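Because showing beats explaining, we think one record worth quoting, sequence and backbone structure tokens together, and here it is:
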Amino acid sequence: MDNINRIMNVYNVEDDEDDNEIQGFIVFGVPRQLYVRQNHFDNYDEANFERRFRLQRNTVLQFLQLIEHQLEYAMDMNNSVSPMNQLLVCLRFYSTGGHLQAIADFAGMHVSTVSRIIKRVSAIIAALGRRYIKFPDTQEAIKACQRKFYDVASFPRVIGAIDCTHIKIESPGGNDAELFRNRKSFFSINVQLVCDADLKIMNVVARWPGATHDSTIFNNSRLYAQFETNQYPQCILLGDSGYPNKPYLFTPLLNPVSPEEQLYNEAHIRTRNKIERCFGVLKRRFPVLAYGCRLKLETVQAVIVATVVLYNFIKENGNDIVPPLPEELDQHAFDILIDNGQIPDIHAHEAQMGEMRQEFINAYFRNLV
């Protein structure tokens, strides 16, 4: 209490009505800073707006309608941040992955306000995951998905391409921090994605440390349980050699010999390339996923799912053309960061080749030779 009284006396801030003006600007000797918030939604033309926030203006308005009621404050006191400004702050962070101080200066807010907004808005957007991140749920939708994959390289029954990508993070600290260090020696979350032939993401798992193997993530996922219980009969996932070969998950052959095996591998590679393209498009749309996210672990997980929700929302309702990278971001560095450099781990049983996969090759690809 003596220290507080001393500080109050130094700056002559007394508890008196006559000094309300001084109290309004000085709190314990720190001048109060009044921020001037810019109207970024109206200040930029369409091209500059999309370059800074990665979404078109109309798409932002459409998406804001979904979450506006959750972003509004009960009372408009103390110059509260509007739902539109909250969303734009979050989008600006996704678009750059920059320091919070830089985002705060851009938005005309204190850095603590920006931090709270990103955490809150990301959680609200991520909560829409069940609505926008899902497998086709009708036979007609499944058949349509399989036809689109078939048109790529004549590979039948494919419903999705699966793979994992690393999202760079800061060390989370604690006894388990090293679990997040991946084989490329940086800390990350290993994120599993499944996409369709249109590069729309149908499944995301964003909770495993970077040192976790791709097959471990899949074997402990809800998707694994769904395919094991035959919820998607006559449907195939395509994965790289890091995954175990299953009746519903086909991997490439290690040493194709016969013409039908070579044709199978070629069709597999061309069809599974959809997930590799999906990684590039997603990280180019939201560069925070490529350059890394310097937030707490729980917030990073929410950011990952939130960007996937926005990515799918754009595919359904917005302009699917990916805008160029902002001028302050380096294209060459970006290309390096989205290159996962994954070296597939060949399982021991791959040398024996699964019977289901070999039967499939003999029954289908032999007829195409």
